[in-house]
Design a protein that fits this description.
The complex is a heterodimer.
Chain A: E1 4-15, E2 18-29, E3 33-37, H1 44-52, E4 61-66, E5 69-71, H2 76-81, E6 84-87, H3 99-103, H4 118-131, H5 147-160, E7 165-169, H6 177-192, E8 196-200, H7 204-210, E9 213-218, E10 221-227, H8 235-243, E11 262-272, E12 280-290, E13 294-298, H9 305-312, E14 319-327, E15 330-332, H10 337-342, E16 345-348, H11 352-356, H12 363-368, E17 376-377, E18 380-381, H13 383-397, H14 413-425, E19 431-435, H15 443-458, E20 462-466, H16 470-476, E21 479-484, E22 487-493, H17 499-512
Parallel strand pairs in A: 3-8, 3-9, 6-7, 7-8, 13-20, 13-21, 16-19, 19-20
Antiparallel strand pairs in A: 1-2, 1-4, 4-5, 9-10, 11-12, 11-14, 14-15, 17-18, 21-22
Chain B: H1 2-32, H2 40-65, H3 74-91, H4 96-120, H5 125-144, E1 149-150, H6 154-161, H7 176-203, H8 210-233, H9 239-257, H10 259-269, H11 271-276, H12 281-307, E2 309-310, H13 318-328, H14 340-359, H15 364-388
Antiparallel strand pairs in B: 1-2
Helix pairs in contact in B: 1-14, 2-8, 2-9, 2-10, 2-12, 2-13, 2-14, 3-4, 3-5, 3-12, 4-5, 4-12, 6-12, 7-8, 9-10, 13-14, 13-15, 14-15
Classes of the chains: A alpha/beta, B mainly alpha.
């Protein structure tokens, strides 16, 4: 049996009015990849913040033994000193600084006069970058490399701090499947060299793929720890632990009620990059959606799916847009989001926090924003009617909140997503485009969103779903379009397709290029 | 039980911080000046001296709502528009009504100019209006030919500075019309509260507690009665006061009740999300600054009429008073939050401090120090308390 590197014993952490962690135990052995799983709000991040010293010793009860010693970290600096490094979900890199500068931020290599030694900084930075397989110059600005590589910079940065225990909070949530797999492979590679990691993720397939053990946390308590090779180690088993019951079907069934009429048709759609107009982002794309149909768009990040959706939605993205849009057989010109909304097209944005919601405002404010005129008389807001509308949408979406006056930024990810969906359903769309509708939300909330999608199409509306999760597309869609590098590769019936067949299109196409 | 009690108190303090601060400062100066602050004449002047700040601050709030953006050019626009009015009326004998229309049009034009660059070309507001500050100050001096120009035209002055007198009613010492207006306004406040509560009850909407609603209405009514009572002791209601109140009420209505007003909050909260909700955000920026120009024009006229003359340094640093009033009144420096009510209280707080210290014979220099201190304190308090309550 390997040496126990970390043991957290009966950790309890209370916030005013809430017990976020209740007697949580976690044991991590040296050289393993340990997954930490739980629904949103289960307490995973809180536990890691306790470990890293973000919540200082004394603000919680319980004990942390690291490398056999009882530790009381007062700050993140303390935990880093012994080799515990946490990489947060939102990358903490400064875009306008170089990779090297970012890696040694707050930890600068100085000569005896206190002046930064840039030569050594960049030399060391590149050493660590080679370790993680990042072939860039350390002087490249962070903004000029992709999200996948930025994640690698974070890991290289951890290495520069002589990491022994690496904690990754949702490391793949903003990566496409290919980059995500690369990252996991890298972790497994490091494992061989003795690095221990804790990985927090919602993506169960990743856990099955790379983790040795999985500890499940529910409602602030540890439920169980599953060991690969000893216990049953499958997605279904893990979900059962997470939600406390077996989830029969992750995708709710629906009657197939696809009608013949085409509600949205796009012909020869071409979009150019707004800053580099010579670059084609979407190249001559044609597709259609029928009434009562869920159509998926699959592809890697950068395939041009979001750009396609946004450019159709009132030219919200890109320049030099050409092509035709037909709604219910009629050719329309949608030059602004306002026109798109008036033509009963809705676009539920990919990133709810930056593009979707006004976080500082209430659910009520957000719900009516896109169609304020519906609660107005002569430009004057009928507050009582607005309250009614917001309450109705909150009820219909199943958003859990104490009140519609709740600041929307205080809701959990899943509830924010439901509120955002409510905002767009309030615009009474005939065609609803949803961009990554379940990113970063837990299994239960996902199921609710799927049910709402089924409701929409059963009313004869159409849903276009852009998602990076293939199982989700296969589970929910009637047809799937496959895109790569701005081109439409294939159109497949979801019933006949498999993850492998869809990835096959993409990989073959990438190999050609 | 204790925690809920203290959280109620904390909530109340947070919600009415600035109202409480205003009351405390007011009582403090009433005491320090031996009651002279409360003289009818001073009470009347409090609103008139600060009228221009209130008008500017209403426009400035819209700019600040869009994302903490400010307009630095107002003082210069006040000089330019005031100068135009003075030169047209005094030197060129233009019909005063025509002059007023032209001046407001020039203010609006200035706003349109700045709004265009800010809204449609996306030049940062700070730079655009800093440019405007220099440009319009220079143009103002050119118009005035570096002279001080007085305005004596009675039509012009009456439109902005006369006191309302109803013949037969207001001939004596006491101006009864002010009292009547006060009583009507106070009754209106109470009746509208009653009606509002009744409507809500009928529709089954959530009610505030009856005590808090009626106490609030009662206090406001009492305040109106007291103020009008004071006015009736000193020359009655000024036209200037009517202008200022009209502007405040209109902008309060726009920001609180209309869809158009809400868009300013949305843009300041998250511009990208607002854009994708089908709202033309460029237009919102444009209108914020175009409107600011119009109100700056109105201020130029109010100020020219009140002072009676215009010169090249008229309006210098007036914009800072407006910005200060907004931030003291709780507007967020990042945009997206703030109310006209708060701004009015912020402006009055500055006004009471100014007047109180003037009555006490404390010089300008100290007034600056105190004003700056109050501004900083107000914002520190706001930031610290909102951090404690877990917001932001």
């Amino acid at each position: 049996m390997a040496k126990v590197l970390l043991e957290m014993r009966s950790i309890t952490k209370e916030f005013p009015g809430v017990k976020a962690l209740d007697n949580v135990n976690l044991k991590v052995e040296e050289g393993e990849i340990h997954a930490l799983i739980g629904e949103n709000g289960a307490g995973k991040s809180t536990l890691m913040n306790v470990l890293s010293g973000t919540y200082p010793a004394g603000s919680y009860s319980g004990e942390i033994y690291y490398d056999g010693k009882l530790c009381q970290f007062k700050s993140q600096k303390d935990s880093e000193a012994v080799g515990i490094v946490i990489i947060h979900q939102e990358l903490a890199l400064i875009p306008l600084l170089s990779i090297g500068e970012n890696m040694f931020l707050g930890n600068e290599i100085k000569n005896k006069f206190g002046v930064i030694d840039w030569n050594k900084t960049y030399y060391e930075a590149e050493q660590h970058m080679r370790q993680v397989g990042l072939n860039e110059s350390a002087q490249t600005l962070v903004k000029d490399i992709g999200t996948g590589k930025q994640q690698l910079v974070e890991i290289a940065k951890a290495f520069s701090k002589k990491v022994k225990l690496l904690i990754l909070d949702e490391p793949t949530s903003s990566l496409n499947d290919e980059d995500a797999k690369m990252l996991l492979d890298l972790l497994m590679e490091f494992k061989k060299n003795g690095l221990t990691s804790i990985i927090i993720t919602h993506k169960l397939n990743e856990i099955i793929y790379c983790a040795d053990k999985a500890t499940i946390i529910r409602d602030g308590s540890t439920i169980e720890t599953l060991v690969k090779g000893v216990d049953e180690f499958s997605e279904d088993r893990i979900i059962k632990g997470m939600v406390g019951r077996a989830m029969e079907d992750r995708y709710p069934k629906r009657e197939h009620n696809v009608q013949n009429e085409v509600s949205l048709e796009v012909k020869n759609w071409t979009v150019h990059h707004p800053l580099y107009p010579e670059r084609v982002v979407d190249d001559n794309i044609s597709f259609y959606v029928r009434r009562g149909e869920v159509v998926g768009f699959s592809g890697l990040q950068g395939a041009g799916r979001t750009e396609l959706a946004m450019s159709i939605f009132g030219h919200s993205y890109g320049t030099g847009i050409s092509g035709e849009v037909y709604l219910n057989g009629e050719k329309v010109s949608l030059k602004s989001p306002e026109e798109a909304i008036r033509h009963k097209l809705a676009y539920v944005t990919e990133d709810r926090k930056t593009n979707g919601l006004i976080l500082d405002e209430s659910i009520r404010f957000n719900t009516t924003l896109a169609r304020l005129d519906k609660v107005c008389r002569g430009g004057i807001i009928d507050t009582d009617k607005e309250v009614q509308v917001a309450e109705q949408m909150t009820r219909e979406m199943g958003t859990k909140t104490p009140s519609i006056e709740q600041r929307i930024g205080n809701l959990s990810g899943g509830n924010q997503q439901k509120a955002l969906l409510g905002k767009w359903i309030f615009t009474e769309p005939e065609v609803l485009i949803m961009d990554e509708p379940t990113r970063g939300i837990d299994v239960g909330a996902k199921y609710d969103i799927y049910c709402l999608i089924n409701d929409m199409v059963s009313q004869g509306k159409s849903v276009v779903m852009i998602s990076s999760e293939l199982p989700e597309l296969l589970g929910m869609c009637d047809r799937i379009y496959v895109m790569n590098e701005g081109r439409l590769l294939a159109e497949v019936n979801a019933a006949d397709a498999t993850q492998e067949s869809i990835m096959g299109y993409i990989i073959r196409d990438t190999a050609k290029a | 039980m204790k925690t809920s009690y203290s959280s109620v108190v904390l909530n109340f303090l947070r919600k009415y911080t600035m109202v409480i601060a205003l009351v405390v400062v007011f009582l403090l100066f009433a005491q320090l000046t031996g009651g002279r602050l409360l003289y009818a004449q001073n009470m009347s002047n409090l609103m008139l001296q600060n009228g221009y700040v209130l008008v500017m601050a209403c426009g400035m709030l819209l700019c600040i709502l869009t994302g903490g953006n400010i307009d630095l050019s107002i003082g210069s626009v006040i000089c330019l528009v005031g100068g135009l009015a003075a030169v047209m009326i005094s030197d060129m004998s233009v019909n005063p009504i025509l002059a007023i229309v032209v001046c407001l049009a020039v203010g609006l034009l200035v706003g349109v100019w700045q709004g265009y660059w800010i809204g449609y070309v996306r030049i940062p507001p700070f730079i655009t209006t800093l440019g405007g500050m220099f440009i319009f100050r220079g143009l103002g001096r050119l118009v005035l030919d570096n002279q001080t120009v007085a305005i004596q035209d009675s039509t012009f002055l009456n439109i902005f500075t006369a006191y309302i007198k109803v013949p037969g009613l207001d001939d004596g010492e006491v101006i009864y019309s002010a009292l009547i207006v006060g009583v009507v306004a106070a009754v209106y406040v109470i009746l509208s509260t009653v009606k509002n509560r009744r409507d809500r009850a009928k529709n089954g909407y959530r009610q505030n507690s009856a005590v808090s609603d009626y106490v609030k209405a009662g206090l406001i009514a009492a305040l109106i009665l007291y103020y009008c009572g004071q006015l009736s002791q000193y020359r009655g209601i000024s036209v200037m006061l009517v202008w200022v109140l009209a502007v405040c009420l209109i902008y309060n209505f726009i920001t609180a009740k209309t869809a158009f007003g809400r868009y300013f909050y949305a843009v300041g909260g998250n511009e990208k999300a607002t854009q994708l909700s089908g709202i033309n955000t460029n237009k919102i920026y444009f209108i914020a600054y175009a409107n600011m120009g119009l109100l700056a024009g109105l201020c130029g006229l109010l100020n020219a009429a009140r002072v009676g003359s215009v010169n090249g340094s008229t309006g210098t640093s007036f914009e800072m008073d407006a910005i200060g009033a907004c931030f003291i009144g709780g507007a967020s420096a990042y945009g997206g939050s703030g109310t006209i009510g708060g701004v009015v209280i912020g402006a009055l707080l500055l006004g009471v401090i100014n007047m109180g210290m003037s009555i006490m014979g404390i010089g300008d220099s100290w007034q600056y120090v105190v004003k700056g201190g109050v501004l900083l304190l107000a914002v520190i308090f706001d930031v610290v308390t909102s951090r404690k309550s877990g917001k932001g």
